[in-house]
Amino acid sequence: MSAAERFVTENDARAAIVAAYRHAQEWGINQGSAGNVSLRWDRGGREGMLVTPAALGAGETTPEDIVWLCLDDPEARSRARAPSSEWRLHRDLYLARPEFGAIVHAHSSFAASLACLPEVQRAGIPAFHYMIAVAGGNDIRCARYETFGTQELSQAIAEAIDARAACLMANHGQTAAGATLGAALALALEVETLCRMYWQARQLGEPSLLSDEEMSRVHAQFAARALSAGS
Question: What's the start-to-end Cα distance of the chain, in Å?
């Protein structure tokens, strides 16, 4: 389903992005002007996206501040505000992954903390809990560190999120994507919850891990549930 089918007008889409940005702060997965939210949105036959602006917190951002940007030509954009410094990671994911309709990038505390650990940077978050499968694999990968806002960071995220829907970002935070704003935001919250649970479990000892066979059964259950919900 396209973004145009979910929202009647661009103003509706802009308002929904602002609401998602504020929910991210209310739910503790963002703070201040950290993080960003985007929605795939075409204009006049040109593939594009709507993204939160640079340097504005959730409480300050209004629908008029949301920036439209053409995916094929980033210079073709609305000029009221500058887009988030991380616009590249959003643009590149939309170009590479047509199933993504919305993206949430967050500096959530537990995800960012774990993403500072060399062990997590190497191996990600393992299958200590079956809900790890919500990110699309048997672990949650961690993208290598690159300077924020760069093409190098966008490439690192593209590699870590390949065939997945979420990843951690070394010394930075997390990125989660979905077909809708609600799905992307819910996944970002789930990733942060899993990171908190993993951090807590590690305070008590080394958690036992689920086997690849069990994770395959979990993925099958998730797929069946999604098929049932869509029928």
Answer: 14
The helix (H) or strand (E) run that includes residue 222 is helix 212-230
Within 18-110, strands assigned E span 36-40, 48-51, 67-70, 102-106
Catalytic entry in 5, 10, 47, 86: 86
Crossing angle of the two packed helices 10-26 and 181-204, in degrees rounded to 10: 10
pLDDT (tens digit per residue) in 113-126: 999 999 999 999 99
Residue 192 contacts residue 28 (beta carbons within 8 Å): yes
| Whether residue 86 lies in the annotated active site | yes
Kindly report the CATH number assigned to the domain that includes residue 149.
3.40.225.10
**C-alpha distance from residue 196 to each of 28, 109, 141, 147 (Å):** 12, 9, 16, 25
Angle between helices 87-96 and 151-160 (to 10 degrees): 40
pLDDT tens, position by position, 27-65: 999 888 889 999 999 998 999 999 999 999 999 999 999
Which domain, by its residues, includes 218? 3-230
170: exposed, middle or buried (Cβ count in 10 Å: 0-12, 13-18, 19+): buried
Give φ, ψ of 79 to 5 degrees: -115, 5
Q: Could you tell me where the beta strands, DSSP code E, fall in the chain?
A: 36-40, 48-51, 67-70, 102-106, 142-143, 166-169, 173-178
Query: What are the tokens at 72?
Result: 């094929």
Tell me how many domains the chain contains: 1
Give me the sheet containing 48-51, strands edge to edge: 67-70, 48-51, 36-40, 102-106, 173-178, 166-169, 142-143
